Amino acid sequence: DAGKLPMCDRCALGTMVWNFSKCGIRHDRYFELTAAECVRPNRLRSLAPRNFQNTMIAYSRMMHWHEKYVDAMARGIVRLLDAHDPRYPKTDKHVLFSYTCKDGSEVPADAFRITSLTVILKAFQALRTGAPDHPVQLRRNAERCCASMARYTRRSVQSSPKFMREDGDACDFFTVLCRVTLDERLDVGHLLPQGSDLDAVLVSAPEAK
Q1: CA 161, 110, 8 angle in degrees (round to 5)?
Q2: Mind listing the pLDDT tens digit for each residue in 45-65?
Q3: Residue 175: closest CA among 131, 209, 130, 129
Q4: 50: Cα within 13 Å, side-chain hemisphere
Q5: pLDDT of 3 above 80
Q6: Which of 66, 84, 95, 102 is least crowded, fewest Cβ atoms below 10 Å from its Cβ?
Q7: How far, in Å, CA of 182 to CA of 194, rounded?
């Protein structure tokens, strides 16, 4: 029932499509309805980093294309990334409202990690975001999102505490960004690290990478 989707909290909204994709079950109508709900301005502003990640995984895994959904995700991710200080593991309550527990206490949403951004970037790539038949504005928003993710990754390398990082996470992100560059659908080659910037990215990366 489409009328019940707006009643779902942000976790349920993202988890349900993720569950369908994890089980390999196509439910195009549900994915279309979820996408329509995600693009509503009030809903988009409410989504937490994990919700962006879970829905992007689901739509790319099922190769379900929804132009307005992908565009909204690109814009929404930038809003959270650019406002967050990567020294802290939780998002600022002034940027994104917290979760409310049964006892009434509030828990701020987890912030993005570099690994989350790598997953999202892979999803953009899998969905062929920026293909020639896609609107110019969608392509530009996706490129802005890639730029925001690259900036955040660099800031995280410099200042995030160790428990927010994984070995080789920045290297993984820029490796995927390199593949996106080679696809030539998005103009993101200028975002790749060089020189001392590259050295910083490679710190703590396993030798195999």
Answers
A1: 170
A2: 999 999 999 999 999 999 999
A3: 209
A4: 14
A5: no
A6: 102
A7: 17
User: What are the helix (H) ranges across 103-168?
Assistant: 114-126, 136-159
CA 23, 28, 34, 35 torsion: positive or negative? positive
Which amino acid is located at 83 in the chain? A
3-state secondary structure of 103: coil
Confidence of residue 2 (pLDDT cuts 50, 70, 90): low
Beta bridge partners of 90: 110
**195-202 helix and 169-183 helix, angle to the nearest 10 degrees:** 130
In terms of C-beta distances under 8 Å and separation of at least 24 residues, what long-range contacts does 182-189 make, across chains too? 183/125, 183/128, 185/128, 185/129, 185/130, 185/131, 185/132, 185/139, 186/124, 186/129, 186/130, 186/139, 186/142, 186/143, 186/146, 187/143, 188/143, 188/146, 188/147, 188/150
Report pLDDT for 208: 54
SS (H, E, C) 26-81: CCHHHHHHHHHHHCCHHHHHHCCHHHHHHHHHHHHHCCCCCHHHHHHHHHHHHHHH
The more confident residue out of 159 and 199 is 159
Model confidence at 1, in pLDDT bands (50, 70, 90)? Answer: low
Q: How far apart are CA 160 and CA 86, in angstroms?
A: 5
